[in-house]
Design goal:
Shape: globular
CATH superfamily of the largest domain: Metalloenzyme, LuxS/M16 peptidase-like
Number of helices: 16
CATH topology of the largest domain: Cytochrome Bc1 Complex, Chain A, domain 1
Oligomer: single chain
Number of strands: 13
Order of helices and strands: HEEEHEEHEEHHHHHEHEEHHEEHHHHHE
Mean pLDDT: 93
Radius of gyration: 23 Å
CATH class of the largest domain: Alpha Beta
Low-confidence stretches: 1-20
CATH architecture of the largest domain: 2-Layer Sandwich
Distance between the termini: 62 Å
Strand content: 15-25%
Length: 435
């Protein structure tokens, strides 16, 4: 019997052909009990990928129990029903099945990938993992220790310190200010009952979204959806998460004896659902999101050699959005780098991009989408889930090119002015100095 690794290796060889991407014909599937999913049937390989998302995520961690959702994500494949953790792992390995979970800020997500010939057993394992997790003490302690190791390392990692400091500066007491992994202190206090509680609250059918890609028919998937998910509770009472009121204009320097300082700047952003999002996205691409073709890359690296890489990105969440600019640079060059970045932010805010820059950005953003997002079943399934999370519509992939091409130069200039014409919050981790 072929293992999943062998099949994936074969698929990878196929995907290395330039321009080869999935044909995305999306079908809406509704199970007999009403569970919905988006499906892309694809019989070019014997794989099935099923991705899913529950609303809530790590922002639902109770105060004092931060990290419980992250811990839950490590425990669902550590034994379920009458199968203990070692036997569960042995079964997935024998069948060539991949099952994994992730705690994001706004969502709790999961994915299964299996050969179609083993799909019945694979779906049964996923059903058990979701509905009957054991939370046995031995794997619980093992997973806790694994996360604690990462948390302890993060305490002395400059990039982690910068990220943690920026979150606290922007979000203050909002749940987004907390680490999704919790802290050494909170994680050490978590107990089995805490996992049972968060499992009951998060894994419910309300706001469940599912994306499936691969060798499975619409009719068969409808029954699989009920088999895997129908026993979950219909809904639960999630904590209400307020809209975040981000705080800009701060400057925070964290003293650390390192030669490469970490520099981060944050300004306002736009949520994905905002009608002006693509205008802001294109402005950001021109500023620093285009990596090797952006203004920041040209000014900071190419012309002055101040950093190996520099970026800007739009960070979007359910209850907040911001623009983040970052780089690592020699501690002796921090002032110069920050001044160059500020200059580019001011120039973009004042004058926006040129028509030529916008045309090039549109061409790249449209042309690269399929290669970046539609070249594997895992990526396609993720797109199917994301489009449902924020209600982009089943035809979003088809409409995306039109939406981008319809953005005008004036709209991009207006978005750039709206987001970048502010005093940023600045975080520097390294030897303190003036900036």
């Amino acid at each position: 019997m072929k293992t999943l690794l062998v099949v994936l290796s074969s698929l990878l060889a196929q995907l290395l052909v330039p321009g080869q991407v999935f044909a995305v014909d999306i079908q809406k599937v509704v199970s007999p009990s009403g569970i919905k999913a988006y499906l892309v049937e694809n019989y070019n390989s014997p794989l099935i990928t099923l991705s899913f998302s529950f609303a809530g995520g790590a922002s639902q961690d109770p105060l004092g129990k931060e990290g419980v959702t992250r811990l839950l994500s490590t425990m669902l494949d550590e034994g379920s029903g009458d199968i203990d953790g070692s036997d569960f792992q042995a079964l997935t390995e024998k069948l060539g099945v991949e099952i994994g979970f992730r705690a994001e800020r706004d969502y709790f997500t999961g994915r299964l990938q299996t050969l179609s010939e083993n799909s019945a057993k694979a779906f049964d394992l996923l059903r058990l993992a979701l509905n009957e997790p054991r939370f046995d003490i031995q794997p619980l302690e093992r997973m806790r220790q694994a996360i604690l190791v990462g948390l302890k390392r993060a305490k002395t990692n400059p990039s982690s310190i910068a990220s943690r400091t920026m979150r606290k500066a922007l979000f203050s007491s909002h749940p987004y200010a907390r680490s999704t992994s919790g802290s050494v202190e909170t994680l050490s206090l978590l107990r089995r009952d805490d996992l049972i509680d968060i499992h009951h609250r998060l894994l419910v059918k309300k706001d469940l979204v599912i994306g499936v890609v691969g060798a499975i028919s619409k009719a068969k998937l409808a029954h699989v959806l009920d088999y895997v998910f129908s026993e979950l509770p219909d809904h639960s009472q999630l904590a209400s998460i307020p809209e975040a009121k981000l705080e800009f204009g701060k400057k925070i320097e964290m003293q650390m004896d390192i030669t490469q300082s970490i520099v981060s700047l944050a300004l306002p952003g736009l949520k994905r659902q905002n009608p002006e999002f693509f205008a802001a996205f294109l402005a950001n691409h021109i500023l620093g999101g285009g990596t090797f073709s952006s203004r920041l890359y040209d000014e900071v690296r190419e012309k002055r050699g101040l950093a190996y890489s520099v970026f800007s990105q739009l960070a979007t969440f359910s209850h907040a959005a911001y623009t983040l600019v970052g780089l690592a640079t020699s501690s002796s060059k921090v002032d110069e780098a920050v001044n160059i970045i500020r200059g580019q932010l001011n120039e973009m805010a004042k004058n926006g991009p040129t028509a030529e820059e916008l045309a090039a950005a549109k061409k790249y953003v449209i042309g690269s989408y399929a290669i970046r997002n539609l070249d594997t079943s895992v990526k396609v399934a993720s797109v199917l889930v994301a489009s449902q999370q924020i209600n982009l519509g089943i035809d979003y992939i088809d409409r995306r090119e039109m939406l981008i091409n319809s953005v005008t130069l004036e709209e991009v200039k207006r978005a750039a002015s709206k987001l970048l014409n502010h005093e940023p919050t600045l975080v520097i981790v390294g030897p303190t100095g003036k900036s």
